[in-house]
Write a structure and sequence with these properties.
Distance between the termini: 49 Å
Largest sheet: none
Structural class: mainly alpha
Number of helices: 8
Helix content: over 70%
Number of domains: 1
Order of helices and strands: HHHHHHHH
Number of strands: 0
Radius of gyration: 17 Å
């Protein structure tokens, strides 16, 4: 059962990556399906923080879809337009640093105190940074790919250690795609956005 779910999660994960790479709004539909699969797998492997983050993933998928498709434009007569890719502003980096640090410490403490996790530090870190990276993605900040590179690299080692078969391969692919995705999203930033940052 776990292996079949892992293969299904792997397949949806590849489709998700394709849509994310192309900044396609359908990425949020995959974001609503993947958590259900991952929750089962993570709980069965004792990755409790990764399990819990999928509740957040469901909520941020709804928000991300709304933000990408119902973004209010600045132009007169255009009440809605697609959110454009942009650089993370200075205030955004402050949010990223502070939120990641606080979430990491809180999750680390919770995992160490209330669970039998054998990897509380790494599990808490990947969960904290993933929460922040999803928020960055929902805001369509190009640098979300950098956050995902870090998460993916740590997850490869973590999942190998926990005995998962396909997820380490999936997250290795994620790491490579994140490099190319970042470069692609940088090219998608409108000129006027680059001049204003």
């Amino acid at each position: 059962m776990d292996l079949a779910l892992e293969i299904l999660g792997f397949t949806i994960g590849i489709i998700y990556l394709w849509w994310e790479y192309h900044a396609d709004t359908k990425v949020w539909l995959a974001s609503m399906v993947m958590p259900a699969i991952s929750m089962w797998l993570y709980f069965s492997k004792g990755l409790y923080a990764d399990f819990a983050i999928n509740i957040y993933y469901l909520a941020i998928a709804v928000y991300g879809y709304w933000a990408w498709t119902r973004h209010k434009g600045k132009e007169a007569g255009k009440s809605h337009k697609t959110l454009a890719v942009s650089h993370t502003p200075a205030w955004g980096w402050t949010v990223v640093a502070v939120a990641t640090g606080i979430l990491w410490l809180v999750l680390w403490r919770l995992l160490s105190t209330f669970t039998d996790s054998t990897v509380p530090v790494a599990d808490a870190f990947t969960t904290a940074l993933s929460i922040v990276a999803m928020w960055m993605m929902a805001r369509k900040f190009a640098e979300q790919w950098i956050a995902w590179m870090v998460v993916d690299i740590v997850c490869v080692g973590l999942y190998i250690y926990k005995g998962l078969v396909f997820y380490p391969i999936l997250y290795s692919i994620y790491t490579v795609i994140a490099v190319f995705g970042y470069r692609k999203w940088l090219r998608m930033i409108p000129r006027r956005k680059e001049e204003n940052t």
